[in-house]
Amino acid sequence: MPLQQPVLSFYRDYLRQIRRLPHHYLRQFFRIKASDDFRALVATPAHRSQLCKSKIRRIYKDLRRIKLALTGRQDAFSFILDLAYGRRGKLRWELMEPLLAQAHAAPSLPEAMIRSEPNSRPPVYSPELSALLINTASRTNKPLELHQLKFPPTLSSRANPISEEARLIGPLSKRLELNIRWRYFRREWKKVYPPLEIAVKGNGELLSTSVSDVSHAGGRILKSQDRGILEGMEDVVGPPTAGTLSTRRERLLFGVHQTLEGSSKQRHPSRWLRRRYQALLGRLPLLILNPNSKKPSFSVGLPLNSITPIGRNAAHRRPALDFANLAWLQRANLLDKQRLSKKV
Predict the structure, then answer these.
(1) CB of 44 within 8 A of CB of 59?
(2) Domain map of the chain by residue range?
(3) pLDDT computed for residue 109 by the predictor
(4) Bigger pLDDT: 129 or 46?
(5) Nearest CA to 179 among 130, 113, 134?
(6) Residue 64 contacts residue 13 (beta carbons within 8 Å)
C-alpha cells in the first residue's frame, strides 16, 4: 500500500497524542507500537483492501483510547496501562511464553500417554507457573488448588483406573484424557497475570531482582528482568504511606521544614495518576524465589504500594506512628487503667 497523505497525517496525529502521555515508558511503548502498526499497514498489498481497512480501524481504535485516556477517562487509561505493561495484548503473551516454554522443557518429562505417539505427553506445570496458578494475587479469578494441577476438575473420575466408575463403565480413553488435560492447561494459564520480574529472598527478607542474583540462585531470567520497569512505576506512586504534614506549632517547636514526614522519596503530584498506577501494581505479581530450599520454591507477592481489594487495609498501608499519636495512645491506655482500678 503506498504512503498516502491521509495515512501520513494519521500517523502524525498518533505521534502528537503519544507525546502527551504522562510517563516516559508509556511514550516509548506506544511510539514503538505505532511504528510497528503503521509499517504493517504500509506493507499490506493493495489488492487486500479489507485487510487494510481492518488494520486502519484497529489503529484508529487505539488512538481513540489514548485520546480518551488523556481527557481523564479512567477505563481508557487503565486499558492503555494494561496494554503497555503486558496485562493484555501481544506483550502479555510474550511475557508468559518463557513460563510456558519452561513447562514443556522440564528435565523429567512424563511418559507418553499413547505409546504409538511419543508426543502425546500431558502438560507439565513448572514451579513458576504452579505458584502463579494457586495464588490469589496473580489470578484474574479464584485461584486453583494444588491437587487440581495433577487431576483437573474437568476430568472424569474414570481416568483413575481404581475408581468405582472405571470398574463399572470402563476406563477413560487415553486420547480423551490427554485432550482434556491440555484444554484445561491452556484455559487456566490465560487467567494468570504474567510477572515482570523474579525476586530472590536474601538476608533480612530483602528482595533482589538483579540478573546476577537471580541466576546465582538458580532462577529463570525473564525478558523484562531488571529493566527498571517496576522502579519507574514506584517513582510515580511514591512510598506506601505518604505521611502527614507537620503543624505550624510542631515546626516551630522542633525546627523542621514543611515536608511530608517519612517520605523522602518523590512521587508524581497528580493523585489521580498515582491511583491508576497503584491499581496497576495490584495486577503485577512478583515471583519470589526462596534459595534456601532444596528444590526451587516460589511464592507470589505484590508491591507494598499497590492497591488491591484484599490489601486495602493492610498494616503496611497505615501511616507511621508519630509523637502526637503516640501521646494520645499513651493517654488512652492510662485512662483505661484508671477506669479498671476504680471498678476494682
Answers:
(1) no
(2) 5-84, 96-189, 198-317
(3) 77
(4) 129
(5) 113
(6) no
